[in-house]
Write a structure and sequence with these properties.
There is one protein chain. This protein is α+β, with helices and mostly antiparallel strands. The chain folds into 3 domains: 65-171, no CATH class; 182-285, no CATH class; 317-511, no CATH class. Helix content is 51%, strand content 7%. The chain contains 21 helices and 7 strands. The chain has helices at residues 6-16, 25-34, 36-65, 70-85, 99-111, 122-136, 140-148, 154-164, 182-193, 199-204, 317-331, 343-367, 374-381, 384-387, 389-395, 400-414, 418-435, 438-450, 457-466, 474-489, 503-511, and strands spanning 209-212, 221-225, 240-248, 251-259, 267-270, 273-276, 282-285. The chain has a 4-stranded antiparallel sheet with strand order 1-2-3-4, with helices on one face. Strands 5-6-7 form a 3-stranded antiparallel sheet, with no helix packed on it. A hairpin with an 8-residue loop joins strand 1 and strand 2 (221-225). Helix 2 (25-34) packs across helix 3 (36-65) and helix 17 packs antiparallel against helix 18 (438-450). The longest helix has 30 residues, at 36-65. The chain is globular, with a radius of gyration of 25 Å.
Length: 537
């Protein structure tokens, strides 16, 4: 019933009628192709056919002359299968570790910060195969790690490496606990290192983590009450240390204070600096900001332009997901139908999980593009919002087929190949979510759906259901959810949380009541251009 890959309809429309010029789309495409993203894409495309042919030749030649025993070939297949599982493309597991396999091994070594030489040592092989076995075992702890970490399946590989390299000073964590910023997560590890409870046990204890907007900037701030750790290292006979983290443009600033039974009312914070509310003496001020004593704290204006007149006081999606993920971790896992949870909460959890996977997908592409960083991609992708303003605006006013007509016109107007558009959209989707620029994220998600990735329609359903970056339109959200769910039920490879068992069924249950009783979708505004025949459902 829902959308087939839209490009078939786009091609038919292109043959039937001329395409009106899309304002700014060619300039945007030229900027991408000529810049860091498009240039890397073109180079990759030019080299890919020769690399594939040469790799195939080497693999066949090596296979025919290698004299590899059947036992060694079986072991090599295990390595190739595990590399593919963790997203390091080793090609078809044929038991011959050729050039493609060595490149995959190098990728794994770089990911784990190991010496990169393309050859597995016995220790590295044990890490790889051990992590693969744990990931396939269905161990609840491992599955929770994989399903909630922005690293996805690679989180199991990272955990296996950490476990097998223990004994010295633990490496500082590079990713936060679900729902917690990295700075707060590192403090949790610090408290756990001098306490009997583990970090995971501390996070389960009521009152250990408190959320509040302490400095009035519209983002979550965090209070860690060390008294629940039972550690004399953090507590004296009368007082315990409270660690207060307040958001700043550069991350979270830490303030260490002595407080008994701390709550949000215990502190007064401005910018990065906090003090105890009862005596007014600053205890610690990280990167204090100059301000008059009687200055009032106002919600900061967003650094990025907002296309859609979103209220300035609206909480960011990143902040929202931080709270959602923390509640999920505190509960011990995702809500499901069998547990009798709330469908809206389940959709919020899956929205934030999908957002994490979208960011990770873009970051993985960036690792193979020398000199490209998330910041440089964000700068390139900033044009996505204004360039696709018409399509993004139609999302909250028009039915899904009409929106896809708009996006189809944009696709044809760029002059870019499907592969360039797909990779660019993947990068800009990650950049948009990482920067909390929802216009960029929405534009990229629309482009992915138009290029045939129906599972990405889930993101658009979430935005319309929750009202982040769009008007809150559950009546329109239902069709986008339906597009993604029908594709997944039809066997389309999942894009988000592919290792989360029963996720399609969970989405089906949670989205089943979306849009029921809501107002009917508004007609397409007459000012929007019509590009050929709409794709049939």
């Amino acid at each position: 019933m829902f959308t087939k890959p839209i490009l078939t309809a786009v091609t038919a429309a292109a043959v039937a009628m001329p395409v009106p010029a899309m304002a700014g789309s060619n300039d945007f495409a030229a900027g991408l192709v000529g810049g860091i993203i498009g240039g890397a894409l073109v180079n990759s495309q030019r080299q890919q056919p020769r690399t594939t042919t040469r790799s195939t030749t080497v693999r066949r030649s090596t296979s025919s002359r290698s004299g590899i025993s059947s036992t060694e070939r079986a072991q090599n297949r295990e390595v190739q299968t595990a590399l593919n599982y963790f997203g390091f493309n080793a090609g078809t597991p044929d038991g011959v570790l050729g050039r493609k396999s060595r490149t995959a091994v190098s990728g794994m070594q770089a990911f784990l910060s190991l010496p990169v030489d393309g050859t597995l040592s016995s220790f590295e092989r044990d890490i790889l195969l051990g992590a693969h076995a744990r990931a396939l075992s269905g161990n609840p702890e491992t599955m929770r790690l994989v399903s909630t970490s922005p690293l996805g399946a690679r989180a199991a590989l990272q955990a296996q490496h950490a476990m097998m390299t223990g004994g010295g000073a633990p490496a500082q964590r590079m990713t936060g606990y679900p729902g917690l910023p990295l700075e707060v997560s590192r403090a949790v590890d610090e408290i756990a290192a001098s306490s009997d409870p583990s970090a995971e046990q501390l996070l389960q204890r009521a009152g250990f983590v408190q959320l509040a907007d302490l400095n009035g900037d519209g983002n979550n701030d965090y209070i860690l009450d060390t008294s629940v750790s039972g550690s004399s290292f953090w507590c004296s006979a009368a007082q315990c240390k409270a660690l207060v983290f307040v958001s700043t443009p550069d991350g979270y600033a830490r303030n260490d204070m002595l407080a008994h039974g701390p709550t949000a009312a215990s502190f007064e914070c401005m910018g990065a600096s906090c003090r105890l509310a009862d005596d007014g003496d600053p205890v610690m001020a990280a990167a204090p900001e100059p301000a008059a004593p009687d200055a009032t704290v106002e919600v900061a204006s967003p650094a990025l332009p907002v296309f859609g007149a979103a209220p300035a006081a609206t909480l960011s999606l990143a902040s929202h997901c931080g709270k959602v993920n923390l509640l999920t971790a505190t509960r011990g896992g995702f809500i499901d139908a069998a547990a009798g949870g709330e469908p809206e909460v389940a959709l919020a959890e899956q929205f934030c999980l999908a957002r994490n996977f979208a960011v990770d997908a873009g970051e993985q592409i960036m690792t193979g593009m020398p000199g490209v960083t998330m910041q440089s991609v964000q700068a390139q992708c900033a044009a996505f919002g204004p360039t696709m303003a018409a399509q993004i605006g139609a999302l909250s006013t028009a039915p899904r087929p009409a929106v896809m007509q708009e996006v189809a016109g944009f696709v044809l107007g760029t002059g870019m190949s499907q592969e360039q558009l797909r990779t660019t959209a993947t990068l800009c989707l990650a950049a948009g979510y990482a920067a909390d620029d929802l216009d960029v994220a929405l534009g990229a998600a629309l482009l992915m759906v138009a290029l045939g990735s129906a599972p990405h329609a889930e993101l658009l359903g979430h935005h319309l259901q929750s009202g982040f970056g769009t008007a809150e339109r559950p009546d329109l959200a239902a069709a986008w959810y339906g597009t993604a769910i029908e594709a997944l039920k039809g066997g389309t490879t999942p894009v988000f949380a592919p290792n989360q068992a029963g996720r399609t069924e969970l989405l089906t249950w949670a989205a089943s009541g979306v849009g029921q009783g809501a107002a009917a979708a508004q007609p397409v505004p007459a000012a929007l251009p019509n590009f050929g025949t709409a794709a049939t459902d």
